[in-house]
User: Fold this.
Amino acid sequence: MPVSISTTASLYDRVRRVIPPIEWPAFSDDIDAILALKRERNAVILAHNYQTPEIFHCVADIVGDSLALARKAMTVDADIIVLAGVHFMAETAKLLNPGKTVLIPDLGAGCSLADSITASDVRLMRQRYPGVPVVTYVNTSAAVKAESDICCTSGNALAVVESLGTPRAIMLPDEYLARNIAAQTKIEIIAWKGHCEVHERFTPADIRELREAHPGVTVLAHPECPPEVVAEADFAGSTAAMSDYVGRHKPARVVLMTECSMSDNVAVEHPDVDFVRPCNLCPHMKRITLANIRAALQQNRHVVTIDPDVADRARRAVERMLAV
Ligand code: 13P
Ligand code: SF4
Assistant:
């Protein structure tokens, strides 16, 4: 059954500040079809904070940062989970709710951090640092998680590292997240050389220029940014933490040093806040579109599968994180 024109119009009301009216007709047919397909197939869409507003605000059922998506994936009751995000997020959903069909609309939606390390690299780190626990960022493949003691996200990394009760910890693979956590704890952190291709491009000079051009602007940064950037920001936190900060503090003017769609999605909720928009696009997140979400639901593609032995070991590391 098609969605009524008034439903689609009320959806447009929600996003009119960030989607120009001329673009809306290109989206409304796919939105209408996706809402109907979700009902027909008993499916839910989980969308990361970096998804574009027509996905995030118009078809997603559950939105959030990597930690929230993992937690909520566990409790999904529907038959199908469509992960509007990148591949490691879809794998995490499958690990935590293995009985469900998990679909990723584009198999090429990867992550430079996940690509920076393999399972054999983790084994080599263990040989090099015997007895030191391995904390692995969720932005990794299931095979890498399977070699790890515990996972973390940008939202809980400090709590995870401090839960270990050890003087040293290996944090893989994001060098900058590791160094940003090292600055907040007495635990010695051993890092890897992986970087997020989006956040590594921000510099302290960017922040200084922004402060000069927009006096009084509040600068929020993701902890995947280099430590020198985090040091000059007013606050650093996960995508959910940045969004909460805007809601709590209501800065008159704010800049989010992160992926571009974040500002659009948060701006929809906070019309009174002025968002300054230098940002970097994540090409992997941008592979997900309304058209391929629709095709995923119509053609049941691409089904996420994980080798059962790898899945058991990877699940242990993710569940251990969720228990912290
Ligand atoms: P969050 O967990 O903060 O949403 O970050 C995920 C991510 O990929 C950031 O680049
Ligand atoms: Fe990976 Fe960076 Fe894209 Fe996040 S923004 S998915 S860390 S490449």
In short: The mean pLDDT is 96. Residues 24-41 form the longest helix (18 residues). The chain is about 45% helix and 15% strand.
